[in-house]
Hints:
Number of helices: 6
Radius of gyration: 18 Å
Order of helices and strands: HHHHEEHH
Shape: globular
Mean pLDDT: 88
Oligomer: single chain
Structural class: mainly alpha
Number of strands: 2
Low-confidence stretches: none
Amino acid sequence: xxxxxxxxxxxxxxxxxxxxxxxxxxxxxxxxxxxxxxxxxxxxxxxxxxxxxxxxxxxxxxxxxxxxxxxxxxxxxxxxxxxxxxxxxxxxxxxxxxxxxxxxxxxxxxxxxxxxxxxxxxxxxxxxxxxxxxxxxxxxxx
Length: 142
């Protein structure tokens, strides 16, 4: 396979992967979209952040993040807290319910991925994990 064909195949397979991830997110937790799950995970990882930080990190439009944040707030999964260092700034944090749902969905997602990869060798799993880490470490643009 030449480089151009390999790149085309990778792009196609990543699109299939993304579609499946979006579709399975609804099955794992009907009220939690893949975007919402991703945002909750980031908030947990960072122990909270501003909505503008979410938008910048994921290269999303601020209005998109604003809609997602509003929905997560209405669902009681996140809350706004005043930044102790700058009282003008609101920082988003997971609520206890948000942590619970994130934990449940994470367990379900890991089980689903584990099931799909159950017959892969340890060497293949390590190689695949390494390639994904390497791919995702590429610097973000714009």
